[in-house]
Structure formats: structure tokens, C-alpha cells
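Hey everyone, long-time lurker, first post.

I ran two proteins through the pipeline my lab uses and got sequence/structure pairs for each. Pasting them in order. The first:
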Amino acid sequence: MTGQLAGQVAIITGASRGIGRAIALLFAREGADIAFCHLHDAEGAAEVAAKVEALGRRAFHAAVDVAELPALRAFIAGAEAALGPCDVLVNNAGLNLRGAIETITEEMFDRVMSVHVRASFFAAQAVWPGMAARGRGRIITTASQLAFKGAPNIVPYCTAKAALVGMTRALAREGAPKGILVNAIAPGPVVSDLTAQLGPDWAERTGATLPLGRVGQPEEIAAAALLLASSPGGDFFVGATLSPNGGDVMH
């Protein structure tokens, strides 16, 4: 078996489409068995699982609302029972609820925070003891360049993504002495189901504002995840937030 992740097990939340799908398929091409969850996308999940298996790797998937912590924990336990201990956790599941500040309800705010922050923390907690016992693990969380620049009418989303950057740094300090490397990715504008909701001219209009002159593709974000997951490529990243964003935010 060859590949940068040969023989490893990766658990990815939200991987039936978009960035999560691209990460799952790239990790499988690099030799990892893939467990992933999805929400209301059985067809997409079946397609991803079939592609993973066509690459010669094992796949495990389940429909999970990651904000429901018992279901999230059961998914992770089931994934490890089916495939083996988790080597790489990718917290990728997310959603965006838009509206001016006057229109944001408590339920909307709590939903965004629960899916992004609460779920990411408790997914990390679920795999943490096993990684610590083995002295090795990688945890990668999908944040956003909007954590750094903000945007109107999506305050809960920007807040959640900024919280993930802070969480990543704190967990990284706790995890590094145990061999658990915790990092984040903060993608810029990327073609996805979320951005498709912004209209047919979104990609052209947004790309024109970037130094690179175009928006990103999910595969370009997956490449950053592979760097953080692999060895020796990711061995010296601790609490970092990589931001493949076409120049939208430079830091």
C-alpha cells in the first residue's frame, strides 16, 4: 500500500459534497480508509462511498446531524468499530444562516454555533483519548477567511468560524505534547453548494475581486488538508490556520 496516508483511518464530518467530498476522495487516493457523515444527502454519500471503495479503500458513512451530540458520538464510535482507530479527524460540517442582525433569532444563532463550534469540539473530544494513548493524531477543522475579515448579514457564521480558530489554537497547545497536532484551514471563496445559493454570477463577480482573479475549487482546499494530515509535510504545524483564499486575506 502506498500513499501519504497509507493504512490510516480518516473521519470527516460533512463529506458528501463540496470541500468535505474533495478531502475524502483525496485522502482515499493517498491510502486512507474513510468514514464520513452527511445530512439529507444519501445519494451524494453513496456516490462518495462508491468512489472511495473504487480506489481500494474502505468506506463507512451515516446520516448525522452533528449538532445532536449523542448521534455524533455514535457515528464516531461506529466508524472506529468498522474501520479502526481514528488517525485523522476533519471537522468540516457546516451551514450558513443569513440575515441582518435585526433578523437573527436565538435559534438561528445557536444552530450555527452548534454545528460549527460545539460539534467540532466534541468530535475532537471523542477521538482525543485514543490519539493520546497512541501518541499520534491529526485534527483539522474547516474555518473560513471570514473569521479574519468578517462580512455583513452572516454574523453568526463569522463568529463561529473565528471561534474555531481560537479553539484550534487552544487544543493545539494541549495536544502537541501528546502527539496530537491540531490545525485549521480557512478557505476563501470556493465553489460549493453553499455559494451556489448566492446566484449564477457569484463565482465570476467574486473572482473579479480577488488578486488571483478567480474563486477556488474544493480540490484546492483538500490539498491543504492533506498537507496537514500527512507526514512529514504536516509534522511541524501546530495551531496553524492555513488560508488558501486567492489573496482575499493576506496574513
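...and the second, right after it:
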Amino acid sequence: MSVREKDDPELYAKIQEQNLLRQYDLLSNCIEIGLKKGIEFFDKYTLWALNYAAVSNISQFGGRYREEPIYVGNHFPPHFRDVPNQMDRFFSVVHENWAILDHPTVLPAYALWRLNWIHPFVEGNGRTARAACYYLICLKQGRLLPGKKIVPERIRENRKPYYAALQAADRAWDQGHFDVSVLADYLAGLLRDQLAEQATAS
């Protein structure tokens, strides 16, 4: 069962917003478990659950990797047969560099960019990537961060610099380099704003 946007745009938008709230609740649980269990808990099952929550009643294939081609503007994500391997490599980079890259937003930026680049799901890739990014931000900080408006919501509010930062990482990758510094700086600013707003509210 799924609702198509073209058939009922108002209901579709309502379901999307309700799904996002449920995804954030689930994300909080995942972060709490990750804080107890460590970075190894960040795995495909975590992402599958977060994706399923984001696209329930919108996509019939939520919570599993795509098995079909997908196109995103000018970006052509990897062939669907390559998705499982690409995702294994993605998790390997995060796990193996967790204790090495101690910068608070570099690995979250990598996750945000790489998941958008791989586009492993049929639907809800951006929402899942932003949730994964925030998961890693909180684990780097060692706590479930306070704030009425968290980093994923701040990205949604102002997408232009977000897209520009993703494109900068894409250009570096196309030239044979790994560089998510623009995205990491962008996330650091959003994180500062989240924490500063919470401090003011307190």
C-alpha cells in the first residue's frame, strides 16, 4: 500500500511529515543504543530501519536496498548491483576511521555525502542520509544533543548551501580526491547554531 503524490498531494505531504517525526523518534533510540554499544552498531540494519520509517505508506520498497536504476538530476548513482558492495565500503570507512578522524563533523559529512552519492534506496535517500549524519554527530559528541531544531531540520530549511557542499565533494571525487571539507564546515555551523539556540533557550 502506498500513496502517490500526484493522486493526493495534500495527503502525501501529511504522510511525509508524520513519517519524519517517527523517523526522528527512531533516530533518538538508535543514537541512545549507539552511545551504549559503540560505532559498530551503525550498520545496514540501522539505515534500513531509518529508511523504512521515512517512507512508510509512500514507497513499497522502504527499508531495503534498491534493485533498479535510479537517476538524480545530473548525477548517475552506481548500478544497483554495486550497491551492497558500495555500502559495505561505506560502513568500513566510517568504522575504520572513527578513532582516527576526531574532527566533530568530517565523518558525519562523509556519511551525508556518500549516502547521497550511492543513493542506496528507492525513496527517502536524503532523509536517511541526514539521519545517519546526525547519528554520527551525536556519537562524536558522546551524547544525544539538545535542541528544538536539530541539524537535519536546519538542512531542510536552507538547502542551497547543502546542495553546493555536496557538489563540491562530488567534484573532488570526480578528480580522484576525497574532500568533504566544505560539507564538514557547513555542518559545523549548523551544529553551533543548534547548540547556541538551546543555550539561549535555557
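Reply from user beta_strand_b:
Welcome! Quick read of the second one: Residues 9-37 form the longest helix (29 residues). Residues 63-201 form a domain with the Fic-like fold fold (CATH 1.10.3290.10).
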